[in-house]
Each structure stands twice: as C-alpha cells, then as structure tokens.
Write a structure and sequence with these properties.
By secondary structure, the chain is of the alpha+beta class. Helices cover 22% and strands 20% of the residues. The structure holds iron/sulfur cluster.
Length: 223
C-alpha cells in the first residue's frame, strides 16, 4: 500500500548533539523549561514529559575492539503509520491522524483515555501526561507545515528540522524521504559502517539512520 503524507529522516551520522532541535521544539510549541540538575553527563532533561516532546539521547558504550563509542540521537514520537496508540484509544477522536501529513495527533480527549494503556501501547514509550490528565507528545509541527502565513516553503517544516544546521534532520514527502534514507544508508555502508540501519523503516514517519549497531544508542526500537 502506498504511503502518502510526510516524514522525517534523522541521520545520526550528521548529528553533533548541539540540541538546537530540542530548544526549537520548546520554543515553537511554547513548552515550559524543566528544572534540571547536573547528572554527570550531557543529557537533560532525563525523560520525556508533558512539556518535553523531543530529546537528544546520549549513550557511551565500548566496541568489541575496546574502543569507546559516544552516540547521540534525536528522539520523539515516530508518527507510526499504523499507530498502536491510536488503536488502543477508546474514543476515535482523542487521537487522530492529520490527513495532509499523516501526523499522529493527541487531543484534549486524551484526558478520558487510560494513560497506562496508551503509554504501554507505544513501542517507544513516548506519551506523557500533564497534571490535568491530558497526554502530550510531538505534533510534527502541523501548525507550521500547514501554515500558509509562513510564506516561504522552507519555513513550512517542523521547527526541529528548520534549525538543524548540519542536515541531520530533514523533512519532506514520505516517498522522497524514504528514497533519501535508502540512498544515504547505502553511502554509510559503503563508508565502512556495515552495521548501519534504518530503524523501523516501513512502520514509521520518523526514520532514524544509525551507523553503529542499534544497541549502542539510547533508543528503543519497534522490532
Ligand atoms: Fe503513538 Fe508511540 Fe507511535 Fe507516537 S511513537 S504514534 S505515541 S505509538
């Protein structure tokens, strides 16, 4: 079945962990900052919350040859094509699919859903609840993507993609992004990263390209 709508490519080989994407998400969506503390590493906040929808997640591991690997990856809702969270929702209008982009959108009606059931249904443990019971996560910035007040097409992309200076976050039509992801994967493998992969390639709209084995990243996968 052909998939329409939009998608992201997160190319971890180009990410420098500057976290501009994390800040841009907060700024565009007017999400309050978290009170954080120095936990001995670069990663903060330590978890998703109702006010933190995007995080750069860090991990240090040792390769089989004894060398150290320090990985980082931008994580958020994957906007699953057949979203388990929506399947779990008791009310059809509490979690909806945007007809233009395919974005999975949580509405006010999520207050009446079971938080435990929706969170458990998500293979990536993304949804979080606020103090009033509503559930929150990335909205693919549909209010930018569909926003005709933003005159330049280059501005009608999610805030995280707009601010990424290295090309680690790109956004566009699903067919173009999957083609770009496959082409980039072939390049990365040719560069010698024989374990490179695209996580959940056919199931999600947030395609994450990893150069190292998946276990070397601070991420869960659907498979
Ligand atoms: Fe729903 Fe989780 Fe998939 Fe996002 S990643 S669409 S919250 S199941």
């Amino acid at each position: 079945m052909a998939v329409n709508g939009k998608a992201f490519l997160i190319d971890t080989t180009k990410c420098t962990a500057c976290r501009a994407c994390q800040v841009a998400c907060k700024q565009w969506n007017e999400l309050a900052a978290e009170t954080t503390e120095n936990r001995g590493g670069y990663e903060n906040p330590p978890d998703f919350t109702a006010n933190t929808w995007l995080r750069v997640q860090f991990k240090e591991t040792e390769r089989s040859d004894g060398s150290l690997a320090w990985t980082f990856v931008r994580s958020s809702c994957r906007h699953c094509i057949d979203a388990p969270c929506k399947q779990e929702a008791a009310n059809s209008d509490s979690i909806t699919i945007d007809s233009d982009t395919g974005a999975v959108l949580f509405g006010e009606g999520t207050k009446d859903e079971s938080y435990a059931a929706i969170r458990t249904a998500c293979p990536f443990d993304i949804p979080r609840q606020d103090s009033e019971g509503q559930l929150f996560k990335c909205r693919m910035c549909v209010d930018r993507v569909d926003n005709e007040d933003l005159e330049a097409a280059a501005d009608r992309i999610p805030a995280c993609a707009k601010v990424c200076t290295t090309g680690a976050i790109t956004f566009g039509d699903y067919a173009d992004i999957t083609a770009a992801a496959d082409a980039r994967l072939a390049e990365v493998i040719a560069e010698g990263f024989t374990n490179a992969t695209i996580l959940d390639r056919n199931d999600v709209r947030l395609l994450i390209l990893l150069a190292e084995p998946a276990g070397m990243y601070s991420l869960t996968t659907r498979g």
